[in-house]
Amino acid sequence: MTDNAPLLRPMHRRLFALRERMARRLSLAAGMALLAIPLSAAAIFALGLFATFLCWSLLEPLWPIPGLVLILGSAPAVLAGYVAARLLSVLFAPLPAPQGVRLEPEDARDLFRLIDDMSGMLEGARIDYVWITPAMNAAVLQRPRRRFFGRIENHLLLGLPLAHSLSCKQLTAVLAHEFAHLSVQRKGFGKYGALLRAWWLRALDKMSDVFPALGALADRALKRLYTNMARLARIEEFEADARAAQIVDADLLGETLIEVSLKEHFLYQDYWPRVLAQSRLRAKPLVRPFRDLSLGMSAGFFRDAAGDGLSGNREPHPLHPTPHERLSALRVKPRIAVEASTSPSVAHRYLSPLLLTLAWVFDRAWWQDARPDWQLTYRDACRKHKRNQ
Predict the structure, then answer these.
(1) Per the count of CB atoms within 10 A, which of 40, 133, 192, 221 is most buried?
(2) Which residue has the higher pLDDT, 316 or 230?
(3) Overall average pLDDT of the 112-123 stretch
(4) Residue 345: phi, psi to the nearest 5?
C-alpha cells in the first residue's frame, strides 16, 4: 500500500455505503423478478388447463365425436403451454463467454506472476483465466463454470491495443482498478447479486425479442430501474478507483487514466479511420491493423497533438464516468506521462513471443467481419473513379 494513499472523504464514504444498499436492493428486485417469470408461466399453463376442462364439459354434450371434442377442447392448454414455454425461454439467455485468446501460464510467465502479485494485495481478487482480446480495454468477468451453475470463476480480459498503449508500471494501476471490483464489490453475496442483476437484464432483453409488446411495456415501467443500474455502475467505478489508489500511487492511477484516454482517442479518431480509408484504394488492406498496431502507435501517436483527446470527443459511456470526473474524485491533476514513450509497452514486455500469433488471429477475425463492407466501398470508389474519367 502506498504511503500517500488518499483517505476517503466523508462524502465518498456515504456514497460507497449507498452503493452497498443499492446493490442489495437491486439484487433483491432482480431475484424476485426472475422468480416471478416461472410463477407466471405456471399460472398461464394452469389457466390453460382450467380452460381446457371447461371446454370439454361444454363441448361433450354438443359433439357426438369424442376425438373431435378432445382436439378442440385441448386448444387452450396447447396455446397456454406454448406461451408458458416462450415465457420460460427468456430465463435461458446465458452470459456471453469471454472472447479472445486464452493464455496459459507458460505462455506469459512474467505476466501471470504480476497478476498473482497484484491479486495477493487485494483479498478475493484471484484470477482463474487470462484472455487477450482485440478491444481497447481491460475487464474482469465472473462466470459460473457450467453456464448457469458451478463455482464462480474470474476471467481477466486484457485488450491487445491496451497492451500496446501502456507501460508495465501503468498496467499495475489498471490491474489494481479491475481487481478492486472483485475485492470490494464482487465478493461474498456481491458476486451472486451482480450475476442476478445481469441475468435479469438479459431476461428483459430477450423478452423484448420474444414478446415485443410486453418488452416495450417493461422498458417504460422500468425506466427508474435502468437509471439506478447505471448509477450503481458509475459509483462502482469511483469506488474501484478509490480502492486502487490505496494499492498504487494515486498519481500513477491518474496518469494511466490520461494515457488510456489519449491512446483510445488516437485509435478511434486517427488509426482506425486511416486503416479503413484503404478501402477506397485497395481491394485488400495493405496495413493489417493488429499486426501493425505497435508501429502505428510509435509512428502516428503524438502526445501534443492528442491532447484534445482529454476533452472527450467520443460519446461518454452511460455506465462509466469520464476521465475528468474520475481524476476529480481522486483529487489528482491531469498529467501526461511523457516518459511513457521511452518505456517498453506491456505487449513487448510480457507478450513478445506471442505478438505475431495474436495479431494474426485478430487480423483474420477482423478481416472476416470487415470484408463485405470493405469490398462494397472499394467497388463504389472504382465506379466513381470511372465516371470521373
Answers:
(1) 133
(2) 230
(3) 89
(4) -75, 165
